[in-house]
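Researcher: Let's try something more involved. This one mixes different molecule types, so please make sure each is placed in the same coordinate frame as the others.
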Amino acid sequence: MDANALAQIHDRFYPEVYRYVRFRLQREQICEDITAEVFLRLLDALNRRRGPDHNLRGWLLATASNLINDHLRRRYSRPVENLDDQENHPDPAPHPESTVEQIWEHEKVRQAIEQLTPEQQHVLALRFTEDHSLDETAKMVGKSVNAVKALQFRALASLRRLLSDERKE
Amino acid sequence: MENSSIVGALEACLKRMQAGSSLEQALALYPQWVEELRPLLLAAQSAQTLGKDILIPKAAQARSRTAFLQAARQRAQTRQDVFAWRFGLALLAVLIILAAGAGTTAAVSARALPGERLYPVKIAAERTRLLMAGAPLKRLELEQSFDKERIEEVETLSQRFRNSQSSHLQEVTFAGGITEIQPGEWLVGGVRVLISPEVLVSSEIKPGDYIEVHGILQPDGSVLASQVQEHQIDISGKLEAIGPNNLVVSGITITVHPETQILGSPSIGMMVHVHAFWMADGSLLAQLVEVTGGNGRSPLITFTPISPTEDLQPSQIPERTETAEPEATSKPTKRVEPTELPEPTEEDEQPNTPNPTDVREPHGTPKPTEVKGTEEPHDSTEEAEPTHPPRSTDTDSTSTSQPYQRTPTPTPREDN
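Model: All components are placed in one shared frame. Result:
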């Protein structure tokens, strides 16, 4: 494998993958680890000649989605440990340009997003991190446009309800 | 379908908001669903803001990039190693299979008997082992073990004959020491060998000699000889020691006796070539010792194969009193071609020194201890036989082609 080509792939897709992961998970360190793991999985797939044939972005984001789902499953399967898991708390390292209110708002949104189904999370992350069109999202999700429309509708309805519940509390 | 319409309206509003329209501008397109769409679009707006506010951690990206490229290099190296290992393992497997096959063939052929398909494989394997044997002594040991194997083959075939497991006459070739000579029948390595009048044999063969026999195995276990000749060996190597009755060439002790022809003036450290006969007791009796040069040559042993019977034409069998011809070095006659020999000196001056003049003195009476390895007793009467003519001074002094005769022993043919 050409090192330059691999470097370009990493440079080109790392931001998009990271945003996707960060959209779905609260803890930044976990997001960085999962994003790095996505590219290592790409190497493994290329070594096994099972890498993406035509849609590298879709493959990377789908892999990121799977890794997030695995992470969430592990977290939910160990609820006792999660009591001390910092992932349930806002990231202690806010970005300089972000206000406290924005950070807090974002964390509430993330907490709500994490409660959506993986499929709903996947659709919302694709639509609202890189502004993928409905057609592009449908291709990456592997569903029809109408199915994605319905999925998106239900996802936003759930998110609204979760955010309303959060604000009531 | 209301829901379908709301779903479509939601998507249309989202597109407008992504294009830069405000939430209210988007809702204005669908006034009938403002109440339903507003909370959804607010949620979408929150998600959209979340997505756009995500900053890329440059340090993490750099670490990921480094780890990514390093992992790529490691995987490439691992792939090469795996390929090399797979290739190596495949090659090893092939070699093992071949070796197993060769080993199996060799193991099976090791039990082969003359006349069987694998017998040539067995002989070829033995020759290969002789070639591969490094030390001259090892070669001699191998040669002796192979000779024993030939004897055992003949015995096994004889056993099959007796058990009626085989009915056809089988050609055999073996070598062994002569332990008994009776008219028309010799005992060679424990095998009875029938010597018909048609078989040409050297008149010098006697009990104690080590001979090769080629013939037909008979139903009674005897071998009807078609060819008989003495077992010979050529050794080239470094002369390591010189004793009164023997030489040590590359670790091989070779018996010398007064009739041993010595060409040149051998001394320790020199390279010599020795033409010798096997004796029944396993010793080697030097026929010819020739100095071939200084140090540096690696030892070499050449086993003389059984020569065809044509070499033993009656006209070529020299009489004991004949003057040796150049070709008289032919193996059956045990003659060597002497070259210039130093004039005899007084033997008593250096009785224990293997001076060529001492051991080559043709008219000297050989002492019994000088003929080591020969079971036949030597007495003065025998040595004085006319068949051992002293080097005549009447002949051309420059031509030292004096016939060399070993201890005279009547052969069965002569007896017949």
